[in-house]
């Protein structure tokens, strides 16, 4: 059911692409989620209006001012450090693990005022140890056996230099002492030469609803650009329309989808597109293998309603997907989807980098890690902090919310969960023609798969989007749903039950 309207020219051989890895920041999630408010430049107003966008992704939604009673809010991920106990130069010491502190003895830990700090302690040699910060009344558990570990966190709300040390008798004097430097003001939000590649989760087209089938034109451009992976870190992303994920496309069953795709002239790689919503050779990829500067048009019939992924299908397909080349197309059933107050668009992916998570400096994609499925980053919408610092989800108490959630991958299944909420409806595996599941806590979504979840927000507060494989939160994977409105004590409150 796919036909090619303009055959592409012969392709060129792909070349290696360099990337730059980032500063040591990740997300804290240890039993319950703590939030550290940022001050000054990080504060931002947010918009509770819904804005439609065309499938061609030619314009960003216009921002509207926040209501007068809605304070500007922003939140920061945790800054994480890992220390291993050991012996160096005849002394007992802490040795840095990963990032800027890799291999350093009793490293100075640099943080900024207002940051939530997590310290992981690993016992490296089997003696009894801990870490204490007197000025913050914070400490780890005592670790005894070799490779035993402990973790603790604190809010860096005091500026200055503070000692961390082992409180076991004689260990501090024997060399187990270092410094934490808390610098005034917030960490730089973004490097000026790095593009924000994050797709705002509120950036999606309006519902189709009730209408007759028609021809829907889609415009895609494959663009390679240096984008912000984290504070102080960039990566050369491969994208559809300069964002990760690519634009969410919307149609109804029976529509004819006419896709105009161009590979930017300054690209290094060949690119293409494979629509899981299409029936035909390669989902369209057979007709869209484009060298830099080439264009093609491919048309397919939307035969089945559902929530579908699209992605680049140029070898190495896993490399192209991991670098950001995935998106979603929603094919609504006849008559449209059930109405909700607010919709969001979120996709999960992985990045495979040469240097470990938390390392600064330039590096290349690690193909060995890619094919052996050992990612350094797990990400919502393309970067660390994408849905926390950069583009949180916003809603109001009493509203019904829908999240279109997909997994670009290329390799890991997600256990999608919103901490503090229960999904009223889950359209399992992206099926919108089957009865939805009800009262669901967590939904599994495989690579190249998608789902749609609906829920009513009964109480204001801060809710956290996670993959419930929770270790991934410490490799960048978390998002915030910030809900304004009354905090209904009948639903949840601190303290005993009220009579």
Walk me through what this model shows.
With 499 residues, the chain is mainly β. A hairpin with a 2-residue loop joins strand 5 and strand 6. The relative contact order is 0.16. The longest helix is centred in the middle third of the chain and has 6 residues, at 317-322. Helices cover 2% and strands 39% of the residues. It has helices at 317-322, 367-371, and strands spanning 2-6, 18-21, 36-37, 75-76, 78-88, 91-97, 109-112, 116-122, 132-133, 138-139, 149-155, 160-165, 177-183, 215-230, 233-240, 249-252, 256-263, 274-275, 295-301, 306-311, 326-332, 342-351, 361-364, 377-380, 393-396, 400-409, 414-419, 423-427, 437-440, 442-445, 450-456, 461-467, 479-484.
